[in-house]
Write a structure and sequence with these properties.
The protein is an alpha+beta fold and about 100 residues long. The protein contains 3 helices and 2 strands. The protein has helices at about 20, 45-60, 70-85, and strands at about 5-10, 25-30.
Length: about 100
């Protein structure tokens, strides 16, 4: 199961900047391992995905595609938020308390 681990960063006294010489405690995110986890997609889901992809590709080449910039920005932001969450990053701006 994914979790956080408290770790310690050793100071580096030879670093050029003062902030880079500091050490301290931080939290490291340890995601779920993906090794030996099969990815199974049944034929029905595969067909639905292929159909959705074909519709999106057709829409992108239609004359009405100019009005989709707003949707594209929204989808890109949604993907970025989901990706950050998968990677264990908190995107709401509140700090993580150390254990």
């Amino acid at each position: 199961m994914a979790h956080y681990e408290a770790r310690h960063w050793e100071p580096s006294y030879g670093a050029p900047a003062r902030r880079d010489r500091r050490g301290g405690t931080y939290r490291s995110y340890v995601p779920d391992p993906l090794v030996n986890r099969p990815l199974m997609v049944d034929a029905e889901l595969d067909a639905q995905c292929a159909q959705a992809e074909a519709v999106v590709r057709g829409l992108a080449h239609s004359p009405d595609a100019r009005g989709l910039e707003g949707l594209a920005r929204f989808l890109l932001r949604s993907e970025a938020l989901a990706s950050s969450r998968i990677e264990g990053l908190q995107v709401d701006g509140s700090p993580w308390p150390l254990p």
